[in-house]
Each structure stands twice: as C-alpha cells, then as structure tokens.
Amino acid sequence: MPVRPLEESFETVVVQEGQPHLKEPPRFAVFLHNDDYTTMDFVIEVLKRYFHKTEEQAMQIMLKVHQEGKGVAGIYHHEIAETKAEQVHDCARSRGFPLLCSIEPTLSE
Q: pTM of the predicted model, to two decimals?
C-alpha cells in the first residue's frame, strides 16, 4: 500500500458558526367524542380537571362536542397527549361513561 504524504492525509472540516436549527417536536390534538350516554356535566368536569379549562371554555368545547361530534380539548406533545387521553378514559370508565378521547397529529406550521 502506498504511503501518502502527511499533508494529504487530512480532510478539511468546515465549521459553520451560529445557532443550531432545532425542530419543535410534533404536537397532537386531544379530541373528546360525542356519545349518547356521557353527560354534559361530566364532559365539563373532565375539561376543567384534566385540561385546566375555565367554566366558560369547558362549556364551549362541550357544546362543540355535542353539536359537531368531536371537539379539541387541548394540544400537547405526544407523550402528554397520550397521558391526558388515558386519564380521561380511566376517569370515564370509573364513573360508568363510555366517553371516547383520541389524539391526532396537528398540521405542521
């Protein structure tokens, strides 16, 4: 194997100065879905307890769920959205309600 001169054995590395470009992790919308058995009062309770909505905000979201079939309870990073959905399911089941809570990725900005 031929031996290369020392000055030819190194590659040039270019270092770019400045801030690294970090991408924000994707966010997920947490949806509550309408059903014929879960009470409106319970949906409001869930929105206030798990999503920290005011009475007025909870009422507006509950009405959207009731009238349109589903409504956004909040938007979070994936792990938080999954946890919120599990908390809602656990609470609903413990109270005898079939309330469905799902997560969907939001559109990237």
A: 0.77
